[in-house]
Every structure is written in structure tokens, then in C-alpha cells.
Amino acid sequence: MIVAGFGFSTRATLASLRDALAQTGGTPEALATAHDKAAQLAPLADDLGLPLRRVSAEALTAQDTTTRSAASQTTRGTGSVAEAAALAAAGPGARLIAPRTFSSDRLATCALARSSAQGKTP
């Protein structure tokens, strides 16, 4: 399973989120973000007909991300919310297949992770 993880500003629009996903070039089977941001991502999940995974703060901080944002580190305790959300939602042993990309307006980021067991939902 491929999971698209998102990090974004409260100012991000649906267009920002779509653009960030498009920048990855991937086709996810689920979307994920920080638990408290899920309501803002829900319209995209609904539009795409994909499940939305809400990731706890503890699960975000437990992930080892490849990119580092000082703002993310300060506010969320992880180098990239998008990467951490994707990895956590894809489950144990997941690997990053696309590091975070930015929307054109720089209000949203998206990363892709693949679960270690193809076809199994985390």
C-alpha cells in the first residue's frame, strides 16, 4: 500500500493539497496527516475516494525522516510531518518512496511511503 502523508499550514487550500500530491508523481491508496489536521485534509480524501489516516503526535515523533524542517521540528518534534505521517500510516517497516515535495504556494507538503507488506492495510 502506498500512503501519501501531508504537512500543511492552516492557510493551505484544497488546491494547495492537490498540488503537493501532484508534485510527488505518485498514486496513493490512502492519505495521512497529523491527527489534529485531519479535518482540513478530509475534503481531498473524499474527493479522491481514499481513506484518511489520522496519525498521533507520538507516532509522528517516532519516525525517522529524510528531510528536516526547523519549523516542523519545533512545532511537531519531527523533521517532516509529511514524511512522518506517510511512514507511520504505512505501518512497521514502511519505506519512503518520495520525500516531501512542496505545493507551488509552499503551504503544503506531501511525501509517499510504501508499506512493507504489499496489499495489507496498516
Characterization of this structure:
With 122 residues, this protein is α/β, with parallel strands linked by helices. It is built from five helices and five strands; from the N terminus they run E-H-E-H-E-H-H-H-E-E. The chain has a five-stranded mixed sheet with strand order 3-2-1-5-4. The longest helix is centred in the N-terminal third of the chain and has 11 residues.
Layout of strands and helices, then pairs:
Elements: E1 2-8, H1 14-24, E2 30-34, H2 38-48, E3 52-55, H3 57-61, H4 70-76, H5 81-90, E4 95-102, E5 108-114
Average pLDDT number = 93
Q: What is the N-to-C succession of helices and strands?
A: EHEHEHHHEE
CA gyration radius, whole angstroms: 12 Å
Number of strands: 5
The class by helix and strand makeup works out as alpha/beta
Which word captures the global form?
globular
Placed side by side, the strands forming the largest sheet appear as: 3-2-1-5-4
Oligomer classification: single chain
Low-pLDDT sequence parts: none
Q: Which percent range describes the beta-strand content?
A: 25-35%
Biggest sheet details: 5 strands, mixed
Please work out how many helical segments DSSP would assign. Answer: 5
Helix percentage: 25-40%
Q: Compute the separation of the termini in Å.
A: 8 Å
